[in-house]
Every structure is written in structure tokens, then in C-alpha cells.
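User: Design a sequence. Structure:
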């Protein structure tokens, strides 16, 4: 069962497990996904508003009506949804916090991987801060201001400290730190578009 944190007539907030697609992929082996599981588990009209990577766990919002899909999508498009991620990265950055503004685009020869490109990339901004320094890794909070594909993963790689267990962007010791990607969507905050109630949800990182 997919853990449900909140639901009403308009939307549902769930906690996605890691290594699960948000939407169906191509091929019969990629039909199991978060959207279909939520539909089968009591919310048959649920529609995906935004996505988390297959390897990422954490909070996701799904719309329950066509009208709410439009309104919730607008919240994301106009950056009215506040997101906080919890991650463990390899090594320890020199600074305790920072801002990464590196434009991103698809690495077409290695799809679905993304890459930094100052000429053709789309603007991307991530704020980060250290919350715990460990022997071979560091626990950080990540605040994406934009929602580019693989943004947090590529930005941490660019910083020189890829996320532990990242099968796309980590190598060697960084990859060996964990069997799963240590990235979790921990907090989601927004104003309900129909009730105007400020809502904030938290799901503690499972690592």
C-alpha cells in the first residue's frame, strides 16, 4: 500500500517508495507505477501533477479531478509550491551552504541523463545546506527553486559531491555508499487552490 498523508475531494498527498516509476514507461515491464497504484488503492480518478525520479522516494501530490489537475499544475508552474529534499552526498563540501545556478539540458547521447550546458541549458537553481557531517558522507537539505529533470542529482554532481547510491551520476565510493539513491522529498508546502488553506506535509527520510 502507498502511504497516504492527506486526501480530500480535490487532491491526495502520498509518500512514494524508492525505485518506483511515477507514471508508466515504455514496454510491458514498466507499467507498474505510483499513479496506477494510487488509483487501484482507493483513488480511481487520481492524476499525476508532478513527478519524482524512479529512484527517489518522498512526497507527491496527485489531483482527483480535471479542475484540480489544472489548478495544482499551475501552482507548480508559477513556483508556488515549496519543496525540501533530504539527501546524503559523498564527501564533505568546503562551505556549509550555498546556491547552485547551473543550467541543465538532456544529454541526448545518454538519455535520460541530464547535463550542465551554459549555451543550451534551461535555468536551474538549487539551494543547499549541511545538517550533519559524517566520516565519508554528508547529510544535506536541498531546496530546488526550479523543477528540472534530475536537477538535484546533477547539481550535487557538479558540486563534486554526488548523491550516495546514484546509479546515474555517482561512481566508485560515492556509488558504493548505498544500494539505493539517498534522496527523499521530505517536505511539500502550498496554499490549497480551492480552500485557500495553507498546507504543509512532512515525511521523514527513511535513511
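Assistant: Done.
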Amino acid at each position: 500500500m502507498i502511504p497516504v498523508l492527506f486526501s480530500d475531494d480535490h487532491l491526495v498527498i502520498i509518500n512514494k517508495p524508492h525505485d518506483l516509476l511515477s507514471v508508466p514507461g515504455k514496454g510491458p515491464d514498466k507499467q507498474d507505477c505510483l499513479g496506477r497504484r494510487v488509483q487501484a488503492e482507493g483513488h480511481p480518478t487520481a492524476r499525476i501533477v508532478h513527478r519524482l525520479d524512479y529512484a527517489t522516494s518522498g512526497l507527491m501530490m496527485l489531483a482527483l479531478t480535471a479542475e484540480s489537475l489544472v489548478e495544482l499544475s499551475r501552482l507548480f508552474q508559477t513556483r508556488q509550491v515549496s519543496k525540501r529534499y533530504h539527501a546524503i552526498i559523498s564527501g564533505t563540501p568546503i562551505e556549509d551552504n550555498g546556491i547552485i545556478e547551473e543550467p541543465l539540458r538532456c544529454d541526448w547521447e545518454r538519455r535520460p541523463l541530464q547535463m550542465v550546458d551554459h549555451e543550451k541549458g534551461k535555468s536551474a537553481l538549487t539551494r543547499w545546506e549541511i545538517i550533519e557531517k559524517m566520516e565519508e558522507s554528508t547529510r544535506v537539505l536541498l531546496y530546488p527553486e526550479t523543477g528540472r529533470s534530475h536537477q538535484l542529482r546533477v547539481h550535487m554532481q557538479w558540486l563534486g559531491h554526488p548523491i550516495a547510491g546514484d546509479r546515474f551520476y555517482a561512481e566508485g565510493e560515492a556509488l558504493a555508499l548505498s544500494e539505493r539513491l539517498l534522496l527523499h522529498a521530505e517536505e511539500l508546502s502550498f496554499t490549497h487552490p480551492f480552500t485557500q488553506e495553507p498546507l504543509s506535509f512532512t515525511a521523514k527520510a527513511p535513511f
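The CA atoms of residues 19 and 55 lie 4 Å apart. The chain has a mean pLDDT of 97.
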